[in-house]
Specification:
Strand content: under 5%
Number of domains: 1
Helix content: over 70%
Distance between the termini: 29 Å
Radius of gyration: 22 Å
Shape: globular
Number of strands: 0
Order of helices and strands: HHHHHHHHHHHHHHHHH
Amino acid sequence: MNGVQSIEERETPRMDEQASGDSEGSSSSQSDRGAVDTSTRPVIRRLLVSASGTAILQGASGAMAFVLAVLLARFLGSVGYGRYALAFAWSSFLLTPAILGLNTFLVRGIAVYEVENQWPLMKGLLFRTNQLVLLTSTTIAVCGTVVALTWFSPSFRGPFCVAMLLVPLTALTLLRQGAMQAFGRVVKGQLPEYLIRPLLIIVGVVALELVGRLTPTTALGANVTGVAVAFIVGALLLRRALPTALRSVRPEFVTREWLHASLPMMLIAGVWMANNYATTLLVGTLDGSRAAGVYSVVQKAAEVIVLVLAATNMPLAPAIARLHARKDRQGLEHTTEHMARATLLVSAPIAVAFMVFPHLYLDLFGASFQTGATALMILALGQLVNSTAGPAGNVLLMTGQERIAVRGVAAGLIANVVLAVVLVPPLGVTGGAIAFASSLVLWNTALVVLARRLVGINVTAFRRLSLQSPARSGS
């Protein structure tokens, strides 16, 4: 195996272009669809197995994150938890410029270099991405700390400064996860962050509470400790997963080319991250720390709905890159359709449960969080639309259409910010939920349409949306 567990897809016969309205073309299309169905079944089975393992792992992590959120909300109260959530949101927000989009590009680059047997470039890519991210993330963390010490209030200064330590640690962790994902070690690559990290944080938070030292600042300190330990374990796992072919080659570098491709991915990741955290930040700024704490709790529940989407995207991303490199467009469409159906099948019941019984979830956090019930119902509906759209963003990123995809995602962010500024002052947490859900609907619609036009495939769970014509580009 040479240390690489690549997804072994069989080559499918090249499809002849169909003449419009020709009955022979229709018959050929049906036989081609059958051939694709047969050839992609092993790929889909492997992806589903990997996605299932990822979903179980993320589910366990989500359960521990839920326990941690409940503990912090009850121990710190809505105001203290709001400060913790705001500081953590800022550290997560600053990850986008810190990582330069290189974690996403790493998945595509490694997958393509593997298909082309470009081992020197793969080794150079691994080296250079870590060097660049270490430099940028450390610089951002230091600048953030200086700003906090100079401008922030004493009550928020401590949590923010400690949260800045998470920026370089998490940025390098995301790079390592991207490499493990590309090498086919999806589940193993997530073990440190999804099991070790949350478990250590929970233990640390409980220990701090027992000795009477738990504050937003010390809670973030426990977070930093958990991330640091998980990072060390993950680095050891990556070292064992590296292909043996990399050991005997000298690295080659095309840094300018890599940055040219990764920067649009950084913009997309930035917009995604900004959209996720902008609402929390705006709610906290316009309606206070208490409202930010309530919205953060509501948002965590809504994120459970797309847990399966995140799980399927992990093994699917390198598979998309490989299928696209082999110019297997119909195989790519068939694979994405099946993964989208699996995602929707699991996500829909969870979304309906949150929409029908929001108070059951919020009761776990205390009476002061019940004001988020309407917001939870709205966010659940928005995330259901997100699941229905399938892996649209992944398809565009892994097929080289990231520059065009930026436009669709940016439209969602603009809508979110504008609506939040307008709706949060009169509606509070509910206004923030309306803004975020609207942005999800807008950008997912845009990405689905772009995938149809640029890649030539249907990425949703509905086969009726499949295209019968070749893609304009990218295939």
